[in-house]
Amino acid sequence: MDENIVLSARDLDLWYGPTQALKKVSVDIPEKQVTALIGPSGCGKSTFLKTLDRMNDLVPGIKITGSVQYRGMEIYDSKVDVTWLRKQIGMVFQKPNPFPMSIYDNVAYGPRTHGIRNKSRLDDIVEKSLQGAAIWDEVKDRLKKSALGLSGGQQQRLCIARALAVEPDILLMDEATSALDPISTSKIEDLISDLKNQYTIVIVTHNMQQATRVSDKCAFFLLGQLIEFGDTTQLFSMPRDKRTEDYITGRFG
Ligand SMILES: Nc1ncnc2c1ncn2[C@@H]1O[C@H](COP(=O)(O)OP(=O)(O)OP(=O)(O)O)[C@@H](O)[C@H]1O
Q1: Rg of the chain taking only CA atoms, in angstroms
Q2: Residues at CB less than 6 angstroms from ligand 1
């Protein structure tokens, strides 16, 4: 299958002060597929994910070298507008973090920030985003109610709707289901599988079953290094590296 690469890291090194958290990571993320980042705690999965939309920029003492290109553009170039970059590359976090405002205002927040004021246009965006995040039917009669009254799983789908509302190209998800019950997790996994028709998705997960269920490509990290990257089915059935095999068979981690 021909793959269009949308994000490409080359020889990426990252230090938090004296601690090196990423070591010469090179990986190509294909368009409209789900790529899962897996590996034991502390191996650098979240750090790598955050480098993809420059979420680490403000961490004191951080140093990043190497290259990350988004559709051919060097994202660490000083000319890049980080607000624009984060509109293209949205992030959903581990804990649902709705703003303390209505469901409607949560979703309209991003588009308003980007200058959209027209009420009927905002109404359309809110409905489309909530539908895209498979939560419209559950909230359409309570759009003016506080988002904080939703269940954890609903809050997380609302956060996905909020991310979709600015029409991103790529969605990054950092353990987006680890705070949720199995039913909510399964809804979000189904949603991820639907969303990849339209978006490129990169997830961090601790859960190897989840990686096999939802991802097309899988990257295995260990101690800041990318050990193996490939098709998820191949990586789990015929890992090329002994360390990948040891991890997926539960010998460590
Ligand atoms: N803000 C920070 N300041 C200093 N060190 C950090 C910071 N964030 C992460 N680290 C360190 O960088 C390394 C990689 O952490 P990271 O959170 O990326 O790993 P992870 O694979 O996502 O782990 P987990 O699965 O436990 O979330 C760890 O040694 C961690 O302690």
Answers
A1: 18
A2: 16, 19, 21, 39, 41-47, 59, 206
* Ligand 1 pocket test target in 43, 50, 226 with most atoms within 8 Å of CB: 43
N-to-C CA span, the chain: 33
Strand pairing class (62-70; 73-74): antiparallel
Q: Whose CA is nearest to atom 9 of ligand 1?
A: 47
**Ligand 1 nearest-atom number relative to CA 44:** 18
Q: What residue type is assigned to position 170 of the chain?
A: I
User: What is the chain's pLDDT, residue by residue, as a tens digit (253 residues)?
Assistant: 568 999 999 999 999 999 999 999 999 999 999 999 999 999 999 999 999 999 998 899 999 999 999 999 999 999 999 999 999 999 999 999 999 999 999 999 999 998 999 999 999 999 999 999 999 999 999 999 999 999 999 999 999 999 999 999 999 999 999 888 898 899 899 999 999 999 999 999 999 999 999 999 999 999 999 999 999 999 999 999 999 999 999 877 5
Query: Complex ipTM, two decimals?
Result: 0.96
- Tell me which amino acid residue 32 is: K
Domains of the chain: 5-248 (3.40.50.300)
Q: Whose alpha carbon is nearest atom 7 of ligand 1?
A: 16
